[in-house]
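G., the chain you wanted modeled:
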Amino acid sequence: MLEEQGPLRCVARCDLPSRGGDRSAERDLEQFLASAPRADFAALSSVVEPELGRLWQDRISAPSRLPADWNLDPGLENRTREPARVGRDRLFAARGALELAESSCVVVNVGTAMTVDAVLDLERAHAGAARSGTHPAEGLGWRRGAFLGGAIAPGPWMMARALGAGAAQLFAVDPEADPPALGLDSEQAMRAGVGLGLRGAARELVNEVGRAAHFVDPTVVLAGGARHFVLRAFEQRRATQCPDLVHLGLCAAVLESAGRPRPAAFGLP
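Predicted structure as tokens:
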């Protein structure tokens, strides 16, 4: 929801499973849509199973006949080798991070997997240079950016499952964000390896991705439900958290595509 002069804020949330086959999830979604505040437009960024994504589209659009765009353009140049294979969640998170940081940044999104991506602010990169052509966002105040790519690593639960399944003498553990480094038994040792290993991996990936992108001290934007696992890795860096970063990117793309100017206070509190 976008207030007239205020920041974007989340007014309703419904958490659903990422795999199909659960009828209760369909009921949960229908109840959520029936009770959620009135919407003017629907957009979707999904990396779930295609059949489940189509089901969500049907459930969202059928009752209300909302204007919708299921293939919304994130509004970024995609400079990767295979643009069509980049997850849309990564692209919309990158767009949200660009609008939030208002500069080139490195996005760390920690969930099932951990992605670390570089986003180039073209406005600053091209400052003082002659422009060719007119960008659709010209005059609306939206940031112009490019998605440069990045790294994908296991998230904490994926890492813990792989560790438990990959060795005969190990077992599944629930990962912790700040475990003691000196594990006094196998369970503690595995938690230390997962929790502290992920933190170290995030720090190193941000350093190397930023260096490869030729960024100088970029802002780090942290997102995802497991971002607390890596917070301490960036205590000495310019870092900001955004729990709804993908949604922020979606909102930016929707407003820009509608020809609306960028609000002065665009961001999630």
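The mean pLDDT is 85.

Shout if anything looks off.
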